[in-house]
Protein: Tyrosinase
Organism: Macaca mulatta
Amino acid sequence: SCQNILLSNAPLGPQFPFTGVDDRESWPSIFYNRTCQCSGNFTGFDCGNCKFGFWGPNCTDRRLLVRRNIFDLSAPEKDKFFAYLTLAKHTISSDYVIPIGTYGQMKNGSTPMFSDINIYDLFVWIHYYVSMDALLGGSEIW
């Protein structure tokens, strides 16, 4: 079921004294105003995929998947793994785009600034976005 995003009105703590500067502060409402909560074994932004380890049209077929140590893979298995990484680097995501400007640079959303991205770089970008320093303007970071 999908619903409007409701954010807490609780005041922010003193650990982040730069309110209104970083788009991550109001995540996800800075870019989205609705979100979905999937039921059963479904997942994804539109609940159209199966949770990890589940398959089938109703996501009821369970398959045990074991994450293996890359150092324990045979040469053909390593080749297959690296082939999939290469494929991910050359496959544009059909589901996701990334912002290439802040919400403020997008004039509070009236001038969208998004870019297509390949699947590999999407995972790299997500890690960068959530772990980057808070940008305070100019050369200042927090």
Q: What stands out?
A: The beta strands are 2-4, 34-36, 42-43, 49-50, 54-55, 61-62, 92-99, 114-118. Residues 40 and 111 are 37 Å apart (CA to CA).
